[in-house]
Automatic annotation (TrEMBL):
Zn(2+) 2 binds at residues 100, 137, 175. Keywords: Hydrolase, Metal-binding, Pyrimidine biosynthesis, Zinc. The modification N6-carboxylysine is found at residue 100. The gene is pyrC. Belongs to the metallo-dependent hydrolases superfamily. DHOase family. Class II DHOase subfamily. Its EC number is 3.5.2.3. It comes from Roseovarius faecimaris. The active site is at residue 248. Substrate binds at residues 16-18, 42, 137, 220, 252, 264. This is Dihydroorotase. InterPro entries: Amidohydro-rel, DHOdimr, Dihydroorotase_CS, Metal_Hydrolase. Zn(2+) 1 binds at residues 14, 16, 100, 248.
Length: 352
């Protein structure tokens, strides 16, 4: 049995770091393991302009603990007022790596998102021209559509039309949760990729609802039926280049989660690599973990894979159940099973 596994240092292609005290508390949970991450721009107010992205990047770098090396890959939040010239300049200078599309009202802090997709068509055309990828939160917001169907309907109503009217636009379907998402990405050409989260490989909707409501398993897109979880696992562990890790680690304080109107988001930065090693081992795919965490993402984004390596050892990891953030405690995602892989050299936290 494999006792130790060395892979290229991973990247996280979808991460929420927030700002202020929360940023300072959660950033080390990512930067202790990951080399780079695509930083989501859904702050309040959102990161819309190049200048705002530069300022946010500086705040992230200022919050980085000494001795950690980490590169935040910045994104802009697409609005109906986005200036294509500002976007193009931010992309050309290397300041931003991608642009994020939130349908207005689809998820946490998405009020400034897009209502009418026709209004952003010129921006999308410019992005196709300059080779700037579009990351998409793929859920419709139509109140008539059942929340469990919102991803599949988004593909037909929004994503496929955008892709066919904007040829060449590189698109990442973020945090896919359905076999429909998997099938759509597989059927596409090489301008299409998808991130898969850690938690969607582990939980289905029963985990949220059976035996009492579990607010820490509530995220968007919401976890679906077991058959969808199995499709995601098959895609993630397949080694296929279209699928790569985007944890969507999304911290909210316990009072904001354990509430009559609880926030959406699972905080998985702390134990993601331990969970993934176990998932891949269970599925007989440990040899494909590196493709998912460290190779497919850079290849899609046209970036080199990281040169440094991390080692995972077959031993129980130790980490706190909660991270203390200064804004309040944030509960670390509980996979519901004992973890048995640990990132080598991982230190016990000084916080939490
Ligand atoms: N995934 C979530 O449930 N929440 C994210 C937003 C998002 O990625 O949709 C957040 O910012 O909290
Ligand atoms: Zn999202
Ligand atoms: Zn997210």
């Amino acid at each position: 049995m494999t006792q130790s596994l060395t892979i290229r240092r991973p990247d996280d292609w979808h991460l929420h770091l927030r700002d202020g005290a929360m940023l300072r508390a959660v950033l080390p949970e990512t930067s202790r393991h990951f080399a780079r991450a695509i930083i989501m721009p859904n702050l309040v107010p959102p990161v819309v302009t190049g200048a705002e992205a530069a300022a946010y990047r500086d705040r992230i770098m200022a919050a980085l603990p000494e001795g950690h090396s980490f590169t935040p890959l910045m994104t802009l939040y697409l609005t109906e007022d986005t200036d294509p010239d500002d976007l193009a300049a931010a992309h050309a200078s290397g300041l931003i790596t991608a642009v994020k599309l939130y349908p207005a009202g689809a998820t946490t802090n998405s009020a400034s998102g897009v209502r009418n997709f026709d209004t952003v068509r010129p921006v999308l055309e410019r992005m196709a021209e300059i080779g700037c990828p579009l990351c998409v939160h793929g859920e419709v917001t139509d109140p008539e559509i059942d929340i469990f169907d919102r991803e599949a309907v988004f593909i037909d109503r929004v994503l496929d039309p955008i892709r066919s009217t904007t040829p060449g636009l590189r698109v990442v379907m973020e945090h896919i949760t359905t076999s429909d998402g998997v099938a759509y990405v597989r059927a596409g050409d090489d301008t299409l990729g998808a991130t898969i989260t850690t938690h969607h490989l582990v939980i289905n909707r029963n985990h949220i609802l059976v035996g009492g409501i579990k607010p820490h398993y509530y995220c968007l897109p919401v976890a679906k039926r077991e058959e969808h979880r199995l499709a995601l696992r098959a895609a993630a562990t397949s080694g296929e280049g279209r699928f790569f890790l985007g944890t969507d680690s999304a911290p909210h304080t316990d009072p904001n989660k354990e509430s009559a109107c609880g926030c959406a988001g699972c905080f998985t930065a702390t134990n993601t690599l331990s969970i993934l090693a176990q998932v891949f081992e269970e599925d007989g795919a440990l040899d494909r973990l590196e493709a998912f965490t460290s190779l497919n993402g850079p290849a899609f984004y046209g970036l080199p894979a990281n040169e440094d390596r991390i080692t995972l050892d077959k031993t129980a990891p130790s980490y706190p159940d909660k991270i203390d953030t200064g804004d309040g405690p944030v509960t670390v995602f509980d996979p519901g099973f004992e973890l048995c892989w640990k990132v080598s050299g991982d230190q016990l936290r000084t916080i939490g």
